[in-house]
């Protein structure tokens, strides 16, 4: 029986990062993973494959809509779906093998199989029981389902099935206008599918900045996605090749039925803790099925820690990674810390949407005095040259102190631009600090500086 300082259960971004940091800190570490490749949902059936399809479909969109304008004439590429899926699978393979390499490099044992915890200090994988002074549960999440909707991953799919459809559907109904629905809806819309998004609330991407939501829906609408908001899906009747979606409009209770070749159910995710044996161990769980932890990721059972999607907080790979590193440091007797106030969120559509910190609605709720600095990409030369001038940067700063409280970006490379604002917020910077920082011309990041200038004496190019 092997003895470890730490066994991590799950090799997603939370788990594999925790394992690497534990090993770097001199702890004898193993990671349990039952999937045939490392990397969890994110690398195998989530973030990475969806980004490959977003990239490929965006290239097609550029060829169809913008090439001729730039004098690039000739045949527009046609879609070889099999090859596109093969490209996506190749990207997955490169990334999952990369983690395997990092495990070898850091001398981390991969315990192959599904793990459970028969008692504190013990992890069972297959027929073998391994001893560990510390156990980190990083078991991630799984899609939620809806009553009256049965997933077959062929016609009625979650994100998993949507990443490997047999063919590009003519008509797709997306249930839920959240991150997954809009990213994957965009992919298929660009590939020629008629995409209709049905959302229970009266807005897309609830929780994001209100102006961003409005602009985002307008832009996606222009790209061809259609939205039915304020609608509750009642049921989905599916055959092997088609589906009928019944929904009720909340405003007048009228019932509607629409046909689809594929229905994507993207109504959220829930913690995945099945089969771990947590209940028998007496590990405290929340009503929403999340493992309860303190601010150092200890559960109520000594020696068992939990991180990532399985605990409270945004279900984001990078939040899990940060918790993984910090939890490893706590186990090694150091000080692990995650600043939950500065966790960016990004939607990788085109344009991208990114946010960090508080929204205006949250500031109003808190009764805070704030100012808004906003700058449109229409005033950014680089964005104009690249057909990417739709969108804006909005910075929210404290009215008295000028300290940055939040930022919301919709526009080109928003997911990268947000990070200079994250760094500024980590350092407690004011909008003026950003505004006084020289930004190279011509770059998209000048729009960030202009928004910061707009918090003070005004943007130059507005
Ligand atoms: P989500 O929470 O982002 O969106 C779910 C949407 O479905 C919400 O707008 C909600 O109002 C709606 N909804 C819920 N029940 C409904 C119903 N019965 N009928 C119609 N609409 C309904 O969830 P999503 O998109 O499934 O993503 C799951 C998780 O994965 C999220 O926490 C997300 O942050 C994460 N994720 C993050 C990505 C990123 O960072 N780029 C990419 C993909 C997923």
Main sheet characteristics? 7 strands, mixed
CATH architecture label name of the largest domain: 3-Layer(bba) Sandwich
CATH class division of the largest domain: Alpha Beta
Low-confidence stretches: none
First-last Cα distance: 68 Å
Helix-strand blueprint:
Elements: E1 3-9, H1 13-24, E2 29-33, H2 40-45, H3 47-65, H4 81-105, E3 109-112, E4 115-119, E5 122-125, E6 128-137, E7 141-143, E8 156-157, H5 159-162, E9 171-175, H6 179-190, E10 194-198, H7 210-222, E11 226-228, E12 231-238, E13 243-249, E14 255-260, E15 262-265, E16 269-271, H8 278-281, E17 304-306, H9 317-331, E18 345-347, E19 352-357, H10 360-365, E20 370-376, H11 381-385, E21 392-398, E22 404-411, H12 414-426, H13 431-435, H14 446-454
Parallel strand pairs: 1-2, 1-6, 2-3, 6-17, 8-15, 9-10, 9-15, 10-11
Antiparallel strand pairs: 4-5, 5-6, 7-16, 12-13, 13-14, 18-19, 19-22, 20-21, 21-22
Helix pairs in contact: 1-9, 3-4, 3-6
Bound molecules: 1,4-dihydronicotinamide adenine dinucleotide (NAI).
Would you give an account of this structure?
It is a single chain. This protein is of the alpha/beta class and 462 residues long. The protein folds into three domains: 3-143 and 270-338, FAD/NAD(P)-binding domain, CATH 3.50.50.60; 156-267, FAD/NAD(P)-binding domain (3-Layer(bba) Sandwich), CATH 3.50.50; 342-454, 2-Layer Sandwich (Enolase-like, domain 1), CATH 3.30.390.30. It is 32% helix and 25% strand. The strands form five sheets. Strands 1, 2, 3, 4, 5, 6 and 17 form a seven-stranded mixed beta sheet that branches. α1 runs parallel beside α9 (317-331) and α3 (47-65) packs parallel to α6. The radius of gyration is 23 Å and the shape is globular. It binds 1,4-dihydronicotinamide adenine dinucleotide. 1,4-dihydronicotinamide adenine dinucleotide binds at residues 146, 175-181, 183, 198-201, 206, 232-233, 266-269, 315-316, 345-348.
């Amino acid at each position: 029986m092997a003895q470890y300082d730490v066994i991590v259960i799950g090799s997603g971004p939370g788990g594999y990062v925790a394992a690497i940091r534990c090993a770097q800190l001199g702890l004898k570490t193993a990671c349990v993973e039952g999937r045939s490749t490392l990397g969890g949902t994110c690398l195998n059936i989530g973030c990475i494959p969806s980004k490959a399809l977003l990239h490929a479909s965006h290239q097609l969109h550029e060829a169809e809509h913008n090439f001729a304008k730039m004098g690039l004439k000739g045949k527009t590429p046609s879609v070889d779906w099999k090859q596109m899926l093969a490209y996506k699978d190749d990207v997955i393979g490169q990334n999952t093998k990369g983690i395997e390499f990092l495990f070898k490099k850091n001398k981390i044992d991969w315990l192959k199989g599904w793990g459970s915890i028969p008692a504190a200090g013990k992890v069972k994988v297959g027929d073998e029981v391994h001893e560990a002074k510390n156990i980190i549960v990083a078991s991630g999440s799984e899609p939620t389902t809806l009553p009256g909707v049965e997933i077959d991953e062929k016609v009625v799919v979650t994100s998993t099935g949507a990443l490997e459809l047999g063919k590009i559907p003519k008509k797709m109904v997306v249930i839920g206008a959240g991150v997954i629905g809009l990213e994957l809806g965009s992919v298929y819309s660009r590939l020629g599918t008629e995409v209709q998004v049905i959302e229970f609330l009266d807005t897309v991407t609830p929780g994001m900045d209100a102006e961003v939501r409005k602009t985002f829906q307008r832009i996606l609408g222009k790209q061809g996605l259609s939205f039915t908001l304020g609608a509750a899906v009642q049921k989905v009747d599916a055959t092997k090749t088609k589906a009928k979606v019944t929904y009720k409009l909340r405003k007048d209770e009228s019932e509607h039925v629409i046909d689809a070749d594929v229905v994507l159910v993207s109504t959220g995710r829930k913690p995945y803790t099945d089969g771990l044996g947590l209940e028998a161990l007496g590990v405290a769980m929340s009503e929403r099925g999340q493992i309860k932890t303190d601010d150092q990721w200890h559960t109520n059972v000594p020696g068992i820690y939990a991180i990532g999607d399985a605990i409270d907080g945004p279900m984001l790979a990078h939040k899990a990674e940060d918790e993984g590193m910090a939890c490893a440091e706590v186990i090694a007797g150091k000080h692990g810390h995650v600043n939950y106030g500065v966790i960016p969120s990004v939607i990788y559509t085109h344009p991208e949407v990114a946010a960090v910190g508080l929204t205006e609605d949250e500031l109003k709720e808190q009764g805070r005095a704030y100012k808004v600095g906003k700058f449109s990409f229409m005033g950014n030369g680089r964005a104009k040259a690249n057909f990417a001038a739709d969108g804006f940067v909005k910075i929210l700063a404290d009215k008295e102190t000028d300290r940055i409280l939040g930022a919301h970006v919709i526009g080109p490379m928003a997911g990268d631009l947000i990070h200079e604002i994250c760094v500024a917020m980590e350092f407690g910077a004011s909008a003026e600090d950003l505004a006084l920082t020289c930004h190279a011309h011509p770059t998209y990041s000048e729009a960030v500086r202009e928004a910061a200038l707009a918090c003070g004496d005004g943007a130059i190019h507005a």
